[in-house]
Structures are given as C-alpha cells and as structure tokens.
Amino acid sequence: MLVVVYLGGMPGLNNGMESRLDTLKEALLYALNPPDTVGSNSPPQLSENSSINELSDLTRTPTPTISLTRTTAVPATGTAFPTATVTPTPTPLPSEKKLEGFTHEFQMLNNDGPANLAIALSYWGWDGSQRDTAAFLKPNERDKNVMTYEMQDFLESETDFRAITRAGGDLQIIKALISGGYPVIVEKGYEGTEFDGWMGHYQVISGYDDGKELFYTQDTLKGPDITENYGEFLKAWRAFNYSYIIPYPLGSDAVLLDILGAQANAYSNFLHASEIATLETDQLAGRDLFFAFYNLGTNLVRLNDYGNAAVAFDAAFANYQELPEEIKPWRILWYQTGPYFAYFYTGRYEDIIELADNTLGRITETILEESFYWRAKAKLALGDEEGAVADFQKSLDAHPGFSPSVEELRRLGIQQ
Q: How does pLDDT run across 36-64, given as a tens digit for each residue?
C-alpha cells in the first residue's frame, strides 16, 4: 500500500471507484450552499454557469470506499477515467485582435480577484473599481483568495452582468472569445520576486497576435497590455485546469453561447476537461504531472465521480511528494478545494482533517474559510460536534457571512 505524504502528512490511498460516469442533471445551484432538501452528507449542486469549486447533482449517492493497492503513483489499470475524443477542426479566426477600453488597476493587498474582475467589467462600461468588488467579495481584507463562484455571486446580486466559468480551455477558445468581443479572466500559476513560492494569479486576456504567438493581458501585478507568449501562458494556465471566466452584460448570452459551442453545456465541458487531463497524465512529468492529476480529480468531482476523483487526487499527492521542495505548489488548497469534496463524499473524513491541518498549519492568520469549513464538516461526520462548531465559527472569522458555515451552524441550532 502506497502511503502518500502531503505538506508533512497526506492521506494514504484508500479510495472508492466507479466504472462509469453517470448522467448529470442540468438543474443546478451553488456547490457550497446546498439547499435544505439536501442532506448534510449528500452531494451539493451547482449552477449552469458552474465555477471551479462547484459540483453538480446526481440521481445517486456516493459509494462507500474500497481499498486500492498499488505500487506506483499512477492509478491502476482499469480505472475508468474518461477517454479522449477527436477534436473538431477549429473555426478560422483573424490572425490578431486586440480589445480596447480597459481601465487598468494595480491590485491592492490580496486583491487579485477583485482587481481583475473590475478591469474586465470596465471594458463593458462599468465604472466601479476593485474597492467596490472587494467590498462584496472580501469581507475580510486578509482573505487570500476569491473563488470564481464568488465573482459570479457578486455579478448576479450586485450588477447587471453575469459570468460563465469553464475549464479545459485552449488557445483557440480564448482567441475565439477575444475575436467575438469578450475579454476573458483566467487563473494561472505564478512565481515571482513578489511572493515566496508558487501562488495563483488572475489575469485579464484582452488580445492576441498569432504572428508573434502571444496574448495581450491586463495584469494587476505588471501593468496594462503586458504580452505573454503562448507556450508560457499554457504552462502556467495548466495549474488551474485551463479554467476561464467570461463576464458579460445581460442580453449578450446568445452570442457568447454560440462562441462556446459544445463548451456552453456544463456537463460536456467537464467531460472535455477530464479528457484533456487524462491525456496529460500520460504525457507529462514532474510538477506538470501533479497538476494534470489534480486537474483530473477536479473535473471528476464536478462530474460527481467522487471515487475516481479520490484516486486522481491520491496520485497527484503521491507525485507531489517526489517534487523538489522549492517547486512544490504548497498553496494549492488555497485556490482549488476539489480534494475536500472527493474525500468527504467517499467517507474519508480523517483524511480531510489531516489535509486541512496541513494546509492551515502553513499560515499564521485565520483565513481560508473553505479549509475550516471542510474540516468542520469532517469533524461533524465523525461525531465531534464541539470541534465542528469551533471550525465553522473560525470559517466565519475568516469570511464573515460565509453562507455554508452559517447554514451548518443553523442546523446545529446556533444562530449567527
């Protein structure tokens, strides 16, 4: 039995597997705010504009875990990961396109997400700034990360804009969106002198030039109209599942959906992203292999295939263990919380606690509301109600009003 260690201690390989992906429902809600009709240990739902941390609802419940013995970090032969399909011939696009009319902002402390969202909205004539987006997205100014589903919530509740979030993107889809007049927000891995080690970083893509093989970006750390070549862009983008967010004004839905084509459908998109990740697990090595397995797990979580998602995350963490210390992306759970979902819905509560302990142990502040939330859920499942309440409250200290924690405390008879 392979024992996996992550950030000083990571769950071992004890996984549930299923042989097929089931049919998903299209009626969806936010993942981190399950409705009252869903049991506390039942899979939540997501919206049609599903974001990186949202799930879809199945007509089944999670299967119990089983033991899986292997001697390598690669999932055993026979694991039912999606297989690749033929990619259609892309529609010809202009060789270059550059959108204009952005109001650039350099991000304030921990304001990566709010600043990029404000920049993207400025293209559509919105006259706010990162102070306006941050006031909603970050009740705690020390919050280290804003999730894409939080951006969508802001747009839907506070503006006349909406957003679609998808994964498994490529150069063609980004260029098609830019060509159609839609700036795109992407999240990528980032390493620079400003930070200690690997971090996540949002970026607004505002143009492209095939002749020079580069994108134009509105970068909140480097400045406006920063160029980045396609190869470097793709390598950094892989760390976040090739995900992209498209804010748009109400009334332009039809054009946007036409550009997205098959990727407009949430299920098709998640399956497509799983296929890409599956291919990359056979093609890559080192840290890129870690990201490929992690992406596969993330996409399988979206498909509610929690057993295979757990297998993929275990493989990711096994490969993480082999990386040189200086390149380990130890902040990964700040931004992408798929392992919590996979392990929770396969009954691996102790593993969630260990993973959250290691993630929270690397910080000195009460931040990362999602890690506190999932540790609380795991403690509650194990019968530690006192410990769960304490963690739900810490989650609210990190993010005042965080609705999943408010709801869990309400169910326990504790009003906030």
A: 222 345 454 433 333 323 322 222 233 32
